[in-house]
Write a structure and sequence with these properties.
Length: 335
């Protein structure tokens, strides 16, 4: 109250333009506006990490009086890395799981691991090679839809994704590799989501998490195809989120911005800026805010905020240094 009164007094005390005191008043006003803007942005930035998890919203099937069934989640690329992290966390947090992967043995092992995490976790598996999506057509997903049947699926995690087989410039990449990456990262999640939307609508409120990458925002050299696919995912995800709102479907669609995570294909040392896949998945399930695009792991969000504040030439210099270093490390391992 006191602050509001002081601000009101200050604003009404504006000296005439010709008065030398006007400059001091103007500078003070500018300072106040900058501080207010900084405070607003800081609160906006921190809010998703401070609020409690909203995951319970997607466990509403447990409240269904006639049939208190555990909710089901579908996870793609579930057999390793972040996808496996999601499967383990969702099981621990009370979901049954439909696990999608290309390797039946890894899927069977994961089912056993999930039982160790939550003995009552029911699972079903669906074998599918995401790179082959265009050969098989969407008809292929009709098997998955049949497998889902009347299971109350309320969460879909579109996690499957990879970069091109080598860190190389565009002309060095195999054509098939480029097509595979676009299929896995973009065509597959788009067609899968199209097939599962009616199920998610009938089980709403429901949640779709689309796993993106910092590369989609900045366009990483020697990872240009991968970066492009993640930029598609971000725009598609955002558009779909608004589309759901326009159609009055209670489906929350969220694009997850991901920095470095220790995973099957990214064997970096675990650190505060490179969490384990499970820690990352836990953060993502906690930060199910209504934001359409979010970096769910706080330290990634901070890195991204700092990155965004830098001039483009500094970002380019950092990317050249970072990718150059990775290329040099790969080169020395191959020798
Ligand atoms: N890790 C990071 O630092 C990082 C950073 C930014 C974004 N991301 C994103 O996070 C997601 C997961 O990455 P990750 O690092 O966890 O990868 P990962 O450890 O290599 O795991 C990838 C998962 O996708 C599956 N997969 C790969 N190709 C497939 C195909 N053709 N068909 C079906 N399944 C396939 C793998 O199956 P197998 O087990 O059979 O190999 C595995 O289950 C990706 O979308 C990636 O772009 C990761």
């Amino acid at each position: 109250m006191e602050i509001t009164k002081s601000v009101a007094e200050f604003l009404t005390s504006r000296p005439p333009l010709t008065d030398p005191a006007f400059t001091k008043w103007g500078v003070t006003l500018l300072g106040m506006l900058t501080l207010a803007q900084f405070t607003r942005k800081t609160i906006e930035f921190l809010t998703p990490y401070l609020l409690p998890s909203r995951l319970n919203k997607f466990k509403h099937t447990l409240q269904n009086q006639s049939n208190k069934e555990k909710p089901w989640a579908v996870v793609t690329g579930s057999t390793d890395g972040i996808g496996k992290g999601f499967a383990l966390e969702l099981a621990a947090q009370g979901f049954n799981l439909i696990l999608i992967g290309r390797n039946p043995d890894k899927l069977a092992n994961l089912e056993k691991e999930l039982r160790a995490v939550a003995a009552d976790c029911q699972t079903a598996t669906y074998v599918s090679d995401a790179s082959k999506i265009q050969e098989k057509t969407t008809q292929d997903f009709s098997h998955l839809v049949r497998l889902i049947g009347s299971k109350p699926v309320t969460v879909l995690v579109n996690n499957v994704g990879r970069s091109t087989a080598k860190l190389a410039n565009l002309t060095e990449l195999e054509d098939q590799d480029i097509v595979d990456v676009i299929n896995i990262n973009d065509v597959y999640p788009t067609l899968l989501t199209k097939q599962l939307l009616p199920t998610l609508v009938s089980n709403s409120p429901s949640l779709i998490l689309n796993v993106g990458s910092m590369a989609g925002d900045h366009g990483f050299p020697f990872m240009t195809v991968y970066s492009g696919t993640k930029a598609y995912n971000k725009a598609w995800s955002r558009g779909l989120s608004v589309e759901m709102k326009m159609l009055e479907h209670k489906i929350q669609v969220q694009h997850l911005l991901v920095g470095s995570v220790n995973s099957g294909s990214n064997k970096v040392s675990v650190s505060i800026t490179s969490p384990t896949s499970r820690v990352f998945a836990r953060s993502a399930l906690k930060v199910t805010t209504t934001r359409k695009i979010v970096a769910p792991y706080f330290w990634h969000a901070l890195q991204m905020r700092i990155f965004e504040a830098l001039p483009e030439w500094v970002i380019d210099t950092m990317l050249i240094g970072m990718i150059g270093q990775i290329k040099a490390n790969i080169g020395s391992k191959e020798e």
